[in-house]
Specification:
- The structure holds 2 protein chains of 2 kinds.
- By secondary structure, chain A is mainly alpha-helical.
- Chain A has 3 helices and no strands.
- Chain A is about 80% helix and about 0% strand.
- Chain A is elongated and about 40 Å long.
- Chain B is of the alpha/beta class.
- In chain B, strands 1, 2, 3, 4, 5, 6, 7, 8 and 9 form a 9-stranded mixed sheet that branches.
- The longest helix of chain B has 24 residues.
Chain lengths: ~70, ~325
């Protein structure tokens, strides 16, 4: 994948992966397969989403400098 | 629906979207991106975009835009939206709100949320249409399964699958940059699922408006009372509770809940609220994520005991005799 020319956004990709993981966890909780601890899960999700924002902001600069 | 027709502007439009039979092959003018076409004779016709209509707008132009995109009468789309909202106990309204957020207007103006979140509406519009279609399919399949009484699908499970699909679409779209519309919808779905998970007894498809229940016998007493939006009053004062402990779960997602309990029965109340105030057996609880645990004097040794498990997301809770 030619990420430099296609405008690849690692932050968006990470954000999508977080939503996939959250969707899987919420589904397992809904069918009573697991018991979600929201007070642990949601802060962790917020941290990863923040990381996604930071990655999105940093990526074009790194691409331009190389 | 008569009102909707009356609200429509009377001036003639160049191509009524509902008149599919009159011009089946012509794309709606408002849906053609100005820069995409070119006037060449052999050039492929520009692709219609899924946008909110300005010329055929009653609320936000979603039904008008869908009608123009799929070349069906927008009135039929509005009827379908109303029917789906009723069938799904109001849950389809969330899909409508999501459509308002993710669909750009036909003049290119984005919703404020999407504008802040990033980019959508260029290459991303096809992914938005795909996700919107997947949401419609999920709602339809779930409603169908529930209507046929096959294995009971829970709405939060379906929403979780939709959230995963949106995540997949975001990953797919990330090759061309961030898709703010999809990310906004993902965040909204995550919030809905988080509240739904925090309040397991507050079912989102359980009802809207004002509800009042007043059982007068053990046979007519349900073990669970759920309400989604509005207010609910559960009057248990005339129930002849038997010896021993009787448990009742009462949940409301958004709104005010009032529970009346009999004075001759010992009462214990446990549960939680997310936002709002509560007055339980004379004690006040305020703040965010408050745990409720109150009981009348001598509860453990009382011959007749009523344990109420409460849950409330946003609103007030009152439990009194």
């Amino acid at each position: 994948m030619n990420s430099a020319q296609s405008g690849f956004s690692p932050g968006a990709a990470l954000c999508g992966l977080v939503f996939i993981a959250l969707g899987a966890l919420f589904f397992l909780e809904a069918v009573d397969a697991i018991d979600l601890e929201l007070d642990l899960l949601l802060p962790a999700a917020v941290i990863v989403l923040g990381l996604a924002v930071v990655l999105s902001a940093a990526w074009p600069r790194r691409r331009g400098s190389s | 629906m008569a009102n909707e027709s009356a609200e429509r502007p009377p001036e003639p439009e160049p191509r009524p979207a509902g008149d599919a039979g009159a011009a089946p092959t012509e794309a709606p003018a408002s849906n053609i991106p100005p820069a995409g076409g070119g006037g060449g004779g052999d050039a492929p016709p520009p692709r219609a975009r899924l946008t909110r209509s300005r010329s055929n707008q009653v609320v936000a132009g979603v039904a008008g835009g869908l009608g123009e995109y799929f070349e069906v009468d927008p009135t039929l789309v509005r009827v379908a939206i109303v029917v789906l909202t009723i069938i799904t106990g109001g849950l389809f309204a969330l899909v409508y709100v999501a459509a308002i957020i993710i669909m750009p207007r036909s003049d290119g103006q984005l919703s404020p949320i999407v504008e802040r979140a990033g980019t959508v509406g260029r290459e991303g519009s096809s992914a938005v249409a795909i996700v919107f279609g997947l949401i419609l399919i999920a709602v339809g399949v779930t409603t169908l399964v529930q209507a046929t009484e096959l294995p009971n699908l829970r709405w939060d499970a379906v929403l979780a699958v939709v959230l995963g699909l949106i995540g997949l679409a975001i990953v797919f779209e990330s090759r061309r940059g961030p898709n703010g519309g999809l990310i906004a919808v993902g965040l909204i779905l995550t919030a809905v699922l988080a509240v739904s998970t925090a309040l397991p007894s507050a079912r989102w498809d359980s009802g809207f408006g004002n509800r009042s229940v007043h059982p007068t016998s053990i046979a007519s007493l349900d073990r669970e009372y759920d309400h989604a939006f509005g207010s609910m009053t559960v009057d248990l004062r005339d129930v002849p509770f038997p010896d021993g402990e009787t448990r009742v779960r009462i949940g409301i997602a958004f709104g005010d809940l009032t529970v009346r309990v009999p004075s001759e029965v010992a009462v214990r109340v446990i549960g939680d609220t997310v936002f709002g105030s509560s007055s339980v057996l004379g004690r006040q609880h305020d703040g965010i994520a408050a745990d409720l645990e109150e009981e009348t004097d001598g509860y453990a040794g009382a011959p007749r005991r009523l344990e109420i498990e409460l849950s409330n997301a946003f609103g007030s809770v009152t439990v009194r005799q």
